[in-house]
Amino acid sequence: MKCLNNTIKILGLGMIAAVVATGCAAKKGPASSQAAAADSSYTVAKGDCLWCIAGQSKIYGNPYLWPLLYKANSGSIKDADLIYADQVLTVDRAASDGEKGRADKHSRNRGPWQIGVVEESDKAYLAGG
């Protein structure tokens, strides 16, 4: 799956009114450069986002589990909303049901976010809160 670009609506005086994720679209072509189901890593493709990566059946099959990717890669991902092509991510294949539940809850209740800013809710999630 590949995330489409975010849409940024700008009102008068250059103020950002809203940032809306436009969703994901299926990737076409062979996935030879991507990790197989049993692999513990994933190479980010141009346009990917944690939501889209987590939603892939070979990763977690559930986009709401993106915080698992964020936590497993907190040393290389500063802002969960900003990842880069060719970045190699660790995929936590041993996450417990409790960890998955906590990731899902965080994803659904994260609140407003901005690219380039580490949200307080993300910091709390990483700290185990």
List the helices and strands and how they pair.
Layout: E1 2-3, E2 7-11, E3 15-20, E4 24-25, E5 41-43, H1 50-55, H2 66-72, E6 88-90, H3 97-109, H4 120-126
Question: How would you characterize this protein structure?
Answer:
By secondary structure, the chain is of the alpha+beta class. It has one domain. It contains 4 helices and 6 strands. The strands form 3 sheets. It has a two-stranded antiparallel sheet. A two-stranded antiparallel ribbon has the order 2-3. A two-stranded antiparallel ribbon has the order 5-6. The longest helix has 13 residues. The radius of gyration is 15 Å and the shape is globular. The relative contact order is 0.16.
Overview features:
single chain; 4 helices; globular; 129 residues
Instruction: State the shape.
Output: globular
Distance between the termini: 30 Å
Number of helices: 4
Number of domains: 1
Overall number of strands? 6
Helix share of residues?
25-40%
Order of adjacent strands in the largest pleated sheet: 1-4
What's this model, at a glance?
This protein is an alpha+beta fold and 129 residues long. It has helices spanning 50-55, 66-72, 97-109, 120-126, and strands at 2-3, 7-11, 15-20, 24-25, 41-43, 88-90. The strands form 3 sheets. A two-stranded antiparallel sheet has the order 1-4. Strands 2-3 form a two-stranded antiparallel sheet.
